[in-house]
Recover the amino acids of this structure.
């Protein structure tokens, strides 16, 4: 039985090994917070996608006859405006629903921008000779040492206040995290034998970077992407609140907060609901990110 | 006889540490390694950690450039400029079958990668045919082509690693502890596979191992290394039957044998391996040697004699 | 006198693919002054059974046993607190990776003295004296100086000596060594094995040596227990085991040693150790066994009498006439 062509595995199979996704889902499911976060995330996603179908009004339609109507369950509220109206008579619910669109748009674009730039720079830093690596990492350290919101504000001030510029600014602020993460992952992978054997096979630098090493570094990056998604939403809301992000009448949650600042004492709902919307989304995404880390991190898997 | 590799006084030194103000210190990971391997033969390199075995593997597989000495592979002198043209003559199999395969690639992709890089004119179909042929040759089943490495056991992964190394039809395989991470029952399967392949394809092996019982089984010639230097060289029969360097003798005696024999007297080596950062003057083995004299501590012996050993007072 | 007595120990893990039985009905007996070696390949459950006994398994594991007692004290259902009193004092363990078993943040001396402080309630000076004495015992030169060293300043062999010193700190009656020399070089391995057996002879403690290396077993152990896929398949006195193995697995394993090879082609055991998803029916070794027939593939094998090495096999090999 020892000849070269002998096959090695002939034992009967009684149970089927679970697929990769199934295994992932099982570990993810163990973290109850993550699952709740995931469902909330999906809920907001659906709301964002089908906003025009769900929302009872156009987000910017003003009804001068019904300004600052309280939510339906409060005295003076009506079911026409379940969550009340804002000072200009716009339906809060519709604005929140459309706001979800902006939040997701912002999250997605910022993450894509930051991750692409960050991963590329990180890869280069990980493979580069020591001097180049040092230069790149010191630049990243400098970016990290400036308070992120402040840096974003400065960038927006230079670029001009608009949602797009806010996104670019936040992407730049978030990018160093990706750079560090990618570089660290690349460094650990580089010492492994499969990289050496790819080199022995004659693989050149671009191939080593993108085909050999990068796919093995993705797990922590995915987790970071989930977490920075919520960061992006938060930062854009903050910029919006400061008047440097989306400009009125865009129904962006942070901008909504800013618009209604002066009514805090008179009409609690105009500030509370956008605030709650931001809180739940960010919390949900963070919980989900934690679950992702548990499920993707091989070190914790062996429990 | 068909010589595949000739190495003359190969050396590799690393500079370590050395910040802005301190001078880097030099680690002599490998010095004065000379050997030849002929087609169909196995040269085993034996030694403990830090003896320079892995550095030797990195030089021969052309991942690193030697600091000194010459390397000749398949009749061509190796310089960094012709590394790419010689890639397909030397391939490597690593110790840890879990770390040496890219977990994100399917077996098929892993096997075809060397072809993709080195035979750009080959069509995808030819590549696949070659990979499937190789899967069969190393004793895996055709359906394994589409699987990911994590679905395999250690022994099967090592078969995949061997298959990958053979894709370019190399003349020399560097085997860096190819069976020491495997279970005993799997170890013999892989050893048999390697021996069969050698016979069938007339491969030369550079077999790096610390396990003397495995070396005794597979080797034709043996080099014993200590702290980056060869200390004894000879045919398997000579080295195992009549060890001349005290270190070889101690190594042989320290290897546990499976014949329970309470009377056996072991040569006890005192102390630990010195750090490669400060290799003692004179014979590097002198501080641990039970028969070291003052000459050993002052002058370094070179490989001497018919069955060469780097010792002033060889055994036998 | 029986020190450790375990009957019918099973450990199940709750995993993504359902329940996985890592240890399956294992019996372990260790007497005082005994050197028992547990041999097996990876996945044979040799470490898991020891960890189960010491209560060091994660919560996904379910442990069942008919009996599990140390020195007459039942270990099952013991609270974590009272278990800790036994473990670390009367029973201690050393692991495979000496480098990662020591905490890199503290000096060697601090780590040795810590267990003395917790278990022996010694005062400062006594602790220091004992620590020096221990390092001296395990053959570390210049112990006073070494107490102040950090783990990264020491080699693998030295770290393993420190681990042994720590394990011996409270004069344990049972020492479990889990692959103590696998990560070490051959010449250092010889030193550590000699040290362990010498210490065992001096103190008369029980020693359980978990390993996969047949050579180490042959040179150190008195009694050997062979495990395969979570089951104990054979137990014999060491010389008899190497001369006359009774379970086909043991016999095939010994034949596969390159050292015992008579020709270039090594005898092999086809296939691999069954994992979670390919556990066969009947005898677990049957898919790889040369002698297996339909009985082996259908029914669980019986445990043979002690004369046949307690082999878990329908048809034990090397059975003399009149015994089977």
């Amino acid at each position: 039985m020892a000849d070269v062509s002998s096959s090695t595995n002939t034992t009967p199979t009684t149970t089927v090994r679970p697929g990769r996704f199934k295994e992932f889902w099982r570990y993810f499911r163990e973290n109850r917070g993550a699952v709740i976060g995931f469902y909330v995330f999906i809920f907001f996603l659906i709301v964002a996608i089908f906003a025009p179908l769900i929302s009872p009004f156009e987000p910017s339609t003003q009804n001068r006859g019904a300004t600052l109507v309280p939510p339906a369950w409060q005295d003076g509220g009506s079911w026409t405006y379940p969550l009340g109206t804002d000072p200009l008579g716009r339906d809060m619910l519709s604005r929140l629903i459309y706001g979800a669109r902006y939040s997701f748009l912002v999250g997605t674009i910022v993450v894509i921008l930051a991750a692409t730039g960050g991963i590329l720079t990180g890869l280069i830093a990980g493979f580069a000779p020591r001097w180049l690596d040092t230069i790149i990492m010191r630049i990243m350290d400098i970016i990290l040492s400036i308070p992120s919101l402040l840096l974003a504000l400065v960038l927006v001030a230079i670029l001009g206040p608009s949602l797009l510029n806010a996104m670019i600014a936040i992407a730049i602020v978030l990018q160093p995290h990706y750079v560090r993460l990618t570089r660290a992952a690349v460094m650990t992978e580089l010492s492994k034998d499969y990289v050496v054997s790819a080199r022995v096979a004659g693989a050149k630098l671009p191939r080593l970077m993108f085909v050999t090493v990068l796919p093995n570094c993705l797990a922590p990056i995915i987790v970071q992407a989930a977490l920075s998604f919520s960061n992006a939403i938060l930062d854009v809301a903050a910029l919006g609140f400061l008047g440097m992000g989306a400009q009125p009448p865009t129904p962006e949650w942070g901008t909504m907060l800013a618009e209604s600042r002066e009514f805090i004492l008179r009409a609690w709902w105009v500030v509370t609901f956008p605030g709650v919307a931001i809180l739940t989304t960010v919390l949900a995404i963070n919980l989900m990110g934690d679950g992702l880390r548990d499920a993707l991190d091989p070190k914790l898997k062996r429990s | 006889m068909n010589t595949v590799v000739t190495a003359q006084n190969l050396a590799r030194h690393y500079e370590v540490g050395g910040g802005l103000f301190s001078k880097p210190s030099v680690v002599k990971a490998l010095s004065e390694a000379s050997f030849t391997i002929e087609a169909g033969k196995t040269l085993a390199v034996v030694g403990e950690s830090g003896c320079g075995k892995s550095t030797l593997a990195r030089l021969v597989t052309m991942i690193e450039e030697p600091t000194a000495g010459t390397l000749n592979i398949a009749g061509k002198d190796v310089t960094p400029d012709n590394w790419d043209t010689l890639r397909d003559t030397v391939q490597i199999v690593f110790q840890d079958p879990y770390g040496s395969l890219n977990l994100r690639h399917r077996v098929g992709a892993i096997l075809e990668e060397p072809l993709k890089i080195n035979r750009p004119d080959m069509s995808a179909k030819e590549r696949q045919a070659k990979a499937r042929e190789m899967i069969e040759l190393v004793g895996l089943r055709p359906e394994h082509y589409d699987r990911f490495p994590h679905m395999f056991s250690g022994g099967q992964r090592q078969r995949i690693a061997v298959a990958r190394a053979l894709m370019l039809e190399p003349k020399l395989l560097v085997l860096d502890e190819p069976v020491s991470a495997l279970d005993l029952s799997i170890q013999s399967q892989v050893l048999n596979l390697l021996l069969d392949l050698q016979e069938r394809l007339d491969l030369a092996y550079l077999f790096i191992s610390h396990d003397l019982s495995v070396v005794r089984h597979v080797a034709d010639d043996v080099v014993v290394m200590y702290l980056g230097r060869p200390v004894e060289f000879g045919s398997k029969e000579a080295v195992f039957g009549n060890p001349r360097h005290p270190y070889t003798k101690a190594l042989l005696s320290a290897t546990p044998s499976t014949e329970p024999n309470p009377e056996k007297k072991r040569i006890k080596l005192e102390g630990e391996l010195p750090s490669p950062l400060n290799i003692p003057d004179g014979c590097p083995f002198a501080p641990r040697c039970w028969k070291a004299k003052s000459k050993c501590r002052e002058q370094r012996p070179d490989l001497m004699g018919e069955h060469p050993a780097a010792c002033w007072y060889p055994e036998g | 006198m029986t020190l450790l007595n375990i009957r019918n120990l099973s450990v199940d893990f709750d995993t993504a693919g359902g329940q996985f039985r890592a240890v399956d009905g294992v019996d372990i007996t260790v007497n005082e002054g005994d050197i028992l070696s547990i041999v097996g390949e990876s996945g044979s459950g040799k470490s898991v059974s020891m960890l189960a006994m010491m209560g060091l398994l994660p919560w996904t594991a379910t442990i069942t046993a008919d009996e599990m007692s140390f020195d007459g004290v039942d270990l099952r259902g013991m609270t974590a607190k009272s278990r800790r009193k036994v473990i670390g004092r009367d029973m201690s363990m050393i692991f495979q990776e000496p480098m990662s078993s020591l905490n890199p943040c503290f000096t060697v001396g601090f780590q040795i003295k810590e267990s003395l402080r917790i278990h022996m309630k010694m005062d400062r000076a006594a602790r220091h004296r004992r620590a020096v004495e221990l390092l001296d015992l395990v053959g570390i030169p210049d112990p006073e100086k070494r107490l102040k060293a950090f783990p990264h300043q020491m080699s693998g062999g030295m770290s393993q000596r420190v681990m042994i010193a720590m394990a011996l700190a409270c004069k344990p009656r049972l020492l479990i060594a889990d692959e103590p020399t696998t990560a070490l070089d051959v010449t250092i391995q010889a030193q550590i094995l000699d040290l362990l057996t010498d210490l065992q002879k001096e103190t008369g403690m029980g020693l359980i040596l978990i390993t996969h290396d047949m050579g180490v077993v042959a040179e150190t152990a008195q009694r050997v227990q062979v495990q395969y896929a979570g089951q104990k398949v054979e137990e014999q006195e060491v010389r008899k085991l190497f001369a006359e193995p009774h379970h086909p697995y043991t016999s095939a394993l010994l034949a596969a040693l390159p050292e015992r090879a008579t020709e270039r082609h090594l005898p092999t055991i086809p296939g691999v150790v069954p994992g979670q998803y390919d556990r066969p029916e009947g005898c677990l070794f049957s898919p790889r066994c040369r002698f297996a027939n339909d009985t082996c593939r259908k029914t669980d094998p019986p445990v043979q009498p002690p004369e046949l090495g307690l082999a878990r096999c329908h048809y034990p090999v090397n059975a003399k006439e009149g015994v089977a």
